Amino acid sequence: MAVQSQIYAGAFADPVFEAQSVFRTLMDCFARPGTIGRLASAASPPSPLGRASGAVALTLCDHDTPVWLSPALSKSAVPQWIAFHTGAGMAEAKDEARFGFVETGGTVPGFDQFALGTQEYPDRSTTLVIEVEALKGGQPLVARGPGIKNEIVVAPKGLPDVFLDFWTANRAIFPRGVDLILTARDAVLCLPRTTRLAIEE
Amino acid sequence: MNDLAAYNFAYLDEQTKRMIRRAILKAIAIPGYQVPFASREMPMPYGWGTGGVQVTASILGPDDVLKVIDQGADDTTNAVSIRAFFQKVANVAVTTKTKEATIIQTRHRIPEEPLREGQTLVYQVPIPEPLRFLEPRETETRKMHALEEYGLMHVKLYEDIARNGHIATTYAYPVKVEDRYVMDPSPTPKFDNPKMHMSEALQLFGAGREKRIYAVPPYTQVVSLDFEDHPFEVQKFDKPCALCGAENVYLDEVVLDDKGGRMFVCSDTDHCEDRRAHGHAGALLARPTQESQEAAE
Amino acid sequence: MYVAVKGGEAAIANAHRLLADRRRGERSLPSITIEQVVEQLGLAVDRVMAEASLYDRALAALAVRQARGDMIEAIFILRAYRTTLPRFGYAEPIDTANMKIERRVSATYKDLPGGQLLGPTFDYTHRLLDPSLLGDEPVEEVALKEPSEPVMRVSDILDGEGLIEGDGEMPEGHVAGDLTREPMEFPMARDLRLQALARGDEGFLLALAYSTQRGYGRTHPFVGEIRIGEVEVELELPELGFAVSLGVIRVTECQMVSQFKGSAKQPPQFTRGYGLVFGQSERKAMSMSLVDRALRTDEFSEDIVAPAQDQEFVISHADNVQATGFVEHLKLPHYVDFQAELDLVRRMRREYETAHGGEDGMKEAAE
What is the CATH number of the domain that holds A176? Predict the structure, then answer.
């Protein structure tokens, strides 16, 4: 019973306007990488998917977007929750996923295991949604690139140590590559593949 | 048949909006790259702004303030029609003032007033592929973008110079975005190209018939293609706007009579009205006499 | 004082009032009903349904009336409505072998099981204006014989002998595409091409088909069979585990048979061009089947030498709603771009005249 109610509850109360509002925050955050956007609407997905990550799924996923979930998310009620509310099916392999979700503290696979798009169609790549402890307070990184006036410092807390190597490798294959949405509670920070990150000196 | 007109907020169904929203996010992540999308049939003709309308409908929310311009003006018929469409299907607040708008949908112009952070400019695009007139095949042009093979474009521009002494492209002048993708800025006069460079606003481009969406994020390099010995330059007008006296703005030529009478006035009607409201006056406004007023009316 | 052009909104409203007035026409005449359009201009209704990809006779008739008989405008109106309809599911493929036949002709056999059935055709009418239609003279009612058995397809006769290629199999697990829901991409698979052709402009396809007959991509075609009639549309319901009938639609199917000399991989055999259209539209179905065959160059290692064989060219330009929108958009204001061109031409003209100083002087003197 408890699992059942988890699956059917926790979506947007007003799907049309809440999805629009979440999308606009995501659009603004992708257009201005490094800025932290607070979602005015958040979902209440089953644990261990976070509120903001759940809202991203409700806003962007549907039948046309196979989703990859981390092992912990796969074992939870999250696959059924996503399937019920968005219609999205689970991707069999990481490189078939349009969206990938990792919960706080979950192992982040190498970005090159996901769909990276092709040189002709670089848009056909996975968007990774990774929940972290906090979007501030971690190792400060200087971000530069389109959408950023000069530079901005980002310091997400709780990313694996190899994150910067993963990201640098992702940046090197531009225009191919994954795009990243970092979430923490009801906030998001977006890193499109164009953003260059370096340790603050 | 009575429930024919039960349309969703902003006309598009949610599944379509999601598909377009995903395309927009990928477009922002790959500046200048044309993302294919499953453009829908809209209740207005292809070529009349269906791409721009789909983009606007997918980003628009109840708190937005929408401005629609065509040729720089809010009162051109197609701008009026698109604005009325969004008032009808989204009940959205509209404005003619560039400063007040959160979303500006445009055909052929970029407002003179510099756009600021938080604003989104949505362009209506007829032919998104800058290489299309050099190579009609999508399969070929896609390869050229993939390989960053833009020699053909430079050859075309250089042939212009060889034949005419200067580049004979005056609008839809190709740009390079973040030193990677060559992009069509839509058929804006090249006068507007410099406004795209490092703009504070997000720029989204929608081509409905050709089924492409592309984007230029804020603070992004947008460089008009040129040559060292023939640098890019924009059109200069001999006289300021006859109504508001503005210089360094794009002007429309208005034919006054059949004897060669001409006047030049701002193409951006909001900019012109705003300047006049702040006391600026051009040659024609500066000394209006009773007779000339009657004669012209 | 100069007053800028204003009042776009009022102008548009007035134009629409005038349009409504002209659409209604002379008020002393009775207004035409949707039922009359459905019944008496049925082929116009069929074309609108076919090219709008929406099978609804009443709505198509409404669109015809609303468009004052402008077919492309009517197609456009119906398509814009179709876009907003939710998808409940995807029907099973219709089975034209089980068609309730109203017309069936084959050009490849003199006689065959099921026979030749002329049906309601314009063929062999002498195209003389018929004065009886000026008025409302009574027309004899014709009762149709109830068809007994399903009529076998001509292609199955050839197939039985192994002389024609198979019936267009798609790879295992292939889900039929939908151009109206997915972005277009080239090269395009045959299922999507057929969809594009089925929605394509009748006149454009007719011209392309004609061009293949005149040598621009010749396919040596024979009409294997044209059949018109009603077929059932069924939807598989997972809850029930079987398909339920949603109703019947009338379609026109054309199987064009053309010669193929064979290749290293395939024996000499006949190949097929396929056409299927909503309603009764033989011209469209035949044109479609010729163009379908012409577009299959990659399957038969044929060189692309003619427009009808070039899928990017054909598919990109077959849609009349797209085409009319883009051609007609030229009437929208373009004065900003024109101003830029005007400036350039004036500048180039000055340069030209400076270079040709003498003539310039003469011209000025004359003025």
Answer: 3.40.50.11310
Instruction: Look up the domain containing A135 and give its range.
Output: 2-193
C350-359 CB burial, b ≥16 within 10 A, e <16: eeeeeeeeee
Whether the Cβ atoms of residue A52 and residue A188 lie closer than 8 Å to each other: yes
C301–B contact, CB cutoff 8 A: no
Q: Which of residues 236-265 of C touch B (CB under 8 A)?
A: none
- Write down which chains contact chain C via at least 3 CB pairs under 8 A: B
Q: How far apart are CA C227 and CA C275, in angstroms?
A: 11
Catalytic residue among B52, B72, B245, B272: B272
Task: Pick the closest to residue A53 from A182, A159, A172, A191 (CA basis).
Answer: A182
Residue B118 annotated as catalytic = no
Domain ranges of chain B: 2-132+173-224, 236-283
SS (H, E, C) chain B: CHHHHCCECCECCHHHHHHHHHHHHHHHHCCCCCEECCCCCCCCCCCCCHHHHHHHHHHCCCCCEEEEEECCECCCHHHHHHHHHHHHHHCCEECCCHHHCCEEEEECCCCCCCCCCCCEEEEECCCCCCCCCCCCCHHHHHHHHHCCCCHHHHHHHHHHHHHHCCCCCCECCCEEECCCEEECCCCCEHHHHHHHCCCCCEEEEEECCCCEEEEECCCCCEEECCECCECCCCCCCCCCCCCCCCCCCCEEEEECCCCCCEEEEECCHHHHHHHHHCCCCCHHHHCCCHHHHHHHC
Q: Is the pLDDT of residue B297 over 80?
A: no
In whole angstroms, what is the distance from residue C75 CA to residue B244 CA?
A: 47
- Read off the DSSP letter of residue C306: S
What part of C 2-61 touches B (C-beta under 8 Å)? 2-9, 11-12, 58-59
CB pair distance less than 8 Å for B218 and A31: yes
* Residue B106 structure tokens: 């445009």
Cβ neighbours of residue A116 under 8 Å, at least 6 residues apart? A95, A122, A125, A126, A173, A176, A177, A178
Query: Is residue A198 situated within a structural domain?
Result: no
Q: Is B84 on the interface with C (CB under 8 A)?
A: yes
Pairing of strands B262-266, B251-255: antiparallel
In a domain, A199, yes or no: no
Residue-wise pLDDT for B254-296, tens only, equals 999 999 889 999 999 999 999 999 999 998 876 544 444 444 4
Please report the pLDDT score of residue B295 as a whole number: 42
Report the distance separating Cα A43 and Cα A82, nearest Å. Answer: 11
Check residue A5 and give its pLDDT. Answer: 76
pLDDT of residue C175: 83
Do C80 and B242 count as a contact with CB atoms less than 8 A apart?
A: no
Give the residue from C5, C65, C154, C16 showing the smallest Cα distance to B1.
C65
Q: B171 and chain C: CB distance < 8 Å anywhere?
A: yes
Tell me the per-residue pLDDT of B228-238, one tens digit each, with 9 for 90 and over. 889 999 989 99
C-alpha distances in Å from residue B115, one per residue of B120, B202, C268, C337, C366: 8, 9, 66, 22, 50
Contact B217 A146 (CB under 8 A): yes
pLDDT of res. B292:
41
Q: How many domains does chain A have?
A: 1
Q: For chain B, say whether A16 makes contact (Cβ under 8 Å).
A: yes
The candidate with the shortest Cα–Cα distance to C72, out of C58, C52, C101, is C52
Show the CA angle centred on residue A45, arms to residues A78 and A18, nearest 5°. Answer: 125
Q: Which residues pair with B175 in a beta bridge?
A: B183, B224
Q: Per the residue annotation, which of B32, B52, B206, B208 is the catalytic one?
A: B32
Class of domain B2-132+173-224: alpha beta
- Catalytic (active site) residue B244: yes
Judged by CB atoms closer than 8 Å, whether chains meet at B81 and C332 is answered as no
Predicted complex ipTM exceeds 0.95? yes
First-to-final CA distance of chain A: 53
